[in-house]
Fold each of these.
Amino acid sequence: MLDLNRPEWVFLPAALAGLLVLASHVPLGRQVLQRGIVFLDLAIAQLAAVGALLVQQAVPGAASGWVAAGGLLVALLGAAFLHAMERHAPERQEALIGVVFISVASFTLVLVSHDPHGGEHLQTLLGGQILWTRLEDLWLLGLVAVLVGLLRWLSPDAFQRYFYALFAIAITASVQIIGVYLVFACLIIPALATLGQTRAAHRQAWGLGALGVLTGLLISVRWDWPAGAAMVLAMAGWAAVYWALHIDPARDQENTPVDK
């Protein structure tokens, strides 16, 4: 029987959580870049966090299931609104996403302003608490990863059609565990680093993200850094190395404008 109290296993749930989040966030992140809505994840993550916070403040001691349901409901409502904007006002969508994010972030500050533990709540919201992940927390992340993967491979049309709903579900499932910063990193950094790669880009993006998660976890344990922040920095570092190794000078020369 696996004894998670042994030192060599105590961080296994955190590592698995990061890898499962990458499994769902990498394909979603590639879609975000294709659609040009990079800050959508920040807005949806903030909405999910506010929904959960509202439930916690309205019903102190509420069960985790109700807290998650509140976050999902608010995230889905926000995703539906932004999806409607994509169809009816695409030229304004990115700006609207920014407005939604900053408005909800400001509302979050108002909610926690009179809470004696407000600073702690904000730190958890942004940086997550991935080191405290339990094995029983992983089933939802795994279910979301399977759902995203099946739709992407078996029905690309459905993946496109239900992208906003999938996005809201995936972000809500992950933000309570890994925080807003690491959610953004898992979505954008691997997808951005491998942008333009035509062969095995998805696997390369996931592998790059996995390196960041595992390296960041080791750094966190070794130097007592916040785990979420360490993973973000490690992922960004590996992405920079990957990008440097895949620079195509000839292509860059072709794309450089010539003064006349």
Amino acid sequence: MRINATDLQNAFGKYLALTEKEDIIITKNGRSVAKLTRYNEPDYFLLHEEALKYKTTRKISYEEYRELVESSDQRYELIDGEVYLLASPAFDHQVAVNEIAWHFYNYFKGKPCRSLTAPLDVRLFGYATKFEEDPNVVQPDIVVVCDEEKVNADNRYEGIPSLVVEVLSPSTKGKDMVTKLNLYMKSGVREYWIVDLAEQSITHYAFSPERDIEGLTIFREDETVRSPLFPGLEIHLPDLFGEIRPKSRQD
């Protein structure tokens, strides 16, 4: 099927559903510019120029990304000019997020920092000096923010989280462990926790103020992950993974 870019923006959900049966060729000024295709992995779609993600020979601009977001009820991320459409997370993914969020809430209650869960747009710009130079928008599973003064007049957060947690899904593993790792490090995030339900592990990255990897530790079995940035913030792994169904731990 061939449609123009305006039709896609006006009825994105309709055409997304049609990708279950066929690819959608997107045209602009009568010329084919992109393809909307169903990604094989279950947890998210990728929109790609003549392949799997939605990108042309140039990066997708933040303005184009905003047009897409405003024309749909779906959730998206913009990373390095590529748009990722996020599907609803699995049950056990949310169990893990809620368990970690509970620990974080109890720790930060009454403190100047605050933990928040997705969906929350986080605007990052890597090594650039401002967002407009390298716009990226992500929705981490959990963030810890210590700069609430960066919430703007429209009640949107424009700061840099101090700590980020991502719970892996099979299809997001590469993105979370490589693409987002680099983005978080370059943008000034100080800690990054990667929770792997299948391996029952938490990979902990500590980043330096100079935006390099300062420490890397993988926690397993009956170990306890502790935050060097927030003394006393810790999670005993059996407390977390004991809440996850055995099938999820084996998949």
Amino acid sequence: ELRLREEAESPFRKVRFLVYGALAAGAATSLAVSIARIAAGLAGINADLLNESLENSIVDSLGIIALYFFWKRDSEEQENRLKQAARGADYAKLMVRGSQELLLGEGDTKSSASSESTTVSRPLSSLRRGRGKEKRVVIAAAGKDTIRKLLEEMAEMSLNASLNKNDLVIVPVTLPQCTAPLGIEKRIINKVSSCIALPAGGDWVSVMNDESETAKNQGIDVLSEGFCIILKENGIVGRQAKGIKLERMVDAVMERKTIVIDVANI
């Protein structure tokens, strides 16, 4: 399925691979002929073709090298797209729990109106564009103390309105356990409940452990500094960012809106 999706996004890659193969085969055949003529010329047979054969062999060799370069670049791009798609699929399966108002679309809200529970669990894929409730998901991962400080700052600064206005939902993840933050005062959770969803199912441990290793390799202190990953409305997983700077994220979206730039893909 991932390969089919990648092929749909790059429909001419197979054609390019066929062209590379055909041109490389032609260049290799021509090179073989030139080498044979060079050998014959050195042996005194058709010596008048020696210089021409040398030139042809150089051109053919350079052509093969260039084709290999283009093939390698295309192959690496294909591999990166497949990895990105696989990463997105892993995130799409993760479950979060939050308020109905935050996670449910209008149709889902009506169907769950009879439920006594005020919270629901939904996969992150349900927050993509066209799935009912479009949101930019910000996964904020750090040690327990850093996550506690983040939630306290969110409550004190009253970021709820700005986050909701810009369709941002925060998913705090405590490392190294890769779980929802535990032991946070209920008053703090209540103040930020309109803009946070908590990990509630799926392989959060595996996904976040991989992200933590990537962050460590980039020199990030994952417990004290933490890192953020943004899942865009179109489902694409953004690059990992050092630290957790929610105000900067809000400002970036608002700035693009102010100058009338498309914000659907950020």
Amino acid sequence: MGRAVERIAFDETAIRDRARELGAEITAAYPDGELLVLGLLKGSFVFLADLVRQIQRPLHVDFLVASSYGEATVSSGNVRLVYDPETKLEGKHILLVEDIVDSGRTLQKLMELLRVRGPRSLEICALLHKRIATELHHEVRFVGFDAPSEFLVGYGLDHAEDFRHLPYVASLR
């Protein structure tokens, strides 16, 4: 771990409280039908675990693995789908859960791949949104926090696989 945390952007309490609020919003948004919460690994796993426990309705969980960062701190734009969900998506409400929306490249590619599978609805929930996603042509319906234009780590977000374990979100020095 050659780099260090500079400052805490969102602490444990703020994240916990916002996950509770998002859970209530999501519960209200999906009163009927099958809901599949689809986590984008690896970054969303901590947020996803906390979020689904706040959603007060039946749901299923599955995962996608896509990569566009590698060792860099900027998305390469080369999105690779490493793991595709085994769950059938047709006719279900799909909520794609992401740790952070940055350029929007990865999410745009995933939305295109998922849309052709015939879901009843397809929405995005992100813990963090930098509001610079020029390449994402789909609204992020559920947002935890607007994020600063810094490289953030913790609470599932990493830099070269480090810092995921932190219980808060921080900027990287």
